[in-house]
GTPase HflX
Amino acid sequence: MKLTEKPLLNNALLISICTPQFKGEEAKASLAELARLVTTLGFKVVGTQSQNQSSTQKMSVLGAGKLAEIAHITGNQGEGEEYDSDTEDFFDEMDLDDIPSDNLPFGCADVVVFDCDLTPSQLRNVENQLGVQVYDRTGIIIEIFSRHARTRTARLQVEMARLNYVAPRLRESSIGDNERQMGKGAGETTLELDRRKVRDQLAELRRELASVQDELKGRRAQRSELFCVALVGYTNAGKSSMMRALTGSEVLVENKLFATLDTTVRALYPETQPRILVSDTVGFIKKLPHDLVASFHSTLAEAHDASLLLYVVDASDPTFRSQLDVVHEVLAEVGVDDIDKLLVLNKSDQLTPEQQQELMEEFPDAMMTSTRNPLDVAKLHKYIVNASEQGMIEEEIIVPYDAKGIMGEIRSSMSVTKEEYEYDHVKLTVRSSAIDLARLKKLMSK
């Protein structure tokens, strides 16, 4: 795989390897999620295949018979043996809930995607057997991240993860092979040069990312005295829709996995005094590649520095409990553990009243919401405001009329609950954090 390669293929065949540790409903749900990932990347899923194996460590991953069957589906373009089967008419539209697995037409797939990670040698062996582009699950996720990264930080993080994935999968070009075989190769081979180029690129990206992270750290420090809410959750749980509903901002909302990767920070709307900030973090997914978790530590720092975490789940998805486990695991990995949390059972408009009641009995401390319901949004807004006020102090302040700039400072950073105008001063009752009150008193003493 060359560094500049981009998938230009359309029709994908999905492969599930079932092992004693990974089978049944878990394997089925994972394959359905892979179908959504592949569709997000722009491919059309034309079918699925599965095979039971003791592990995923075999050099060819699959048995010889299954490889021959798959080679027939990809048009017998590789080195594998041919497989005889009656062809059928091709299909135009296919619901992802009804992906075929039997009697797939000859040559209907031009890309194969495995729902597991493949080693470089496994990837190479399967591609040789099938004669088409082969991806593993990590390769698909990284490709999606590469396409969806928008900000400088996200692009740097994704590129580092991509290069870490590509590096061990680099192969000697045919020119390099011929030169080496003919004894004409001088110095480093093409493969060695490519690997050194990747190492140099990674080193440069790390330096650039460190510089960007210092800038982000400075911005977070400026916001550290404000109450911050971070939306965390599985990809496609509705975090971006909730972000837009809570802040009135035009953030990207799409029914796709990883539609947004970049952390967005906006003020809660209607605005409060002091302001409350809301951040939307990158979505999580099962089997999230370790390099991506490592790369996105700075993005998840928004969650680390938050005053309140909203765990957003798609309550209409039967697998949301296992998805919630993934969120817990990833946040624990980046050190987010002792922050106040609220479970938000989102997309309640897709549930029956009976289903809603059952979920609230199962999760009595959660909040049932739909971002399409203004009353639900208002209820969540009120919860956030109340949570921010729990740590505030109420105090009475005397402000002389000739005190310059004091009233502006108070109104911009504090909640004024009472005002009394006297002959030579204003008596205010304010609610604020201890830090803001101390800063105000220091300013007034000058």
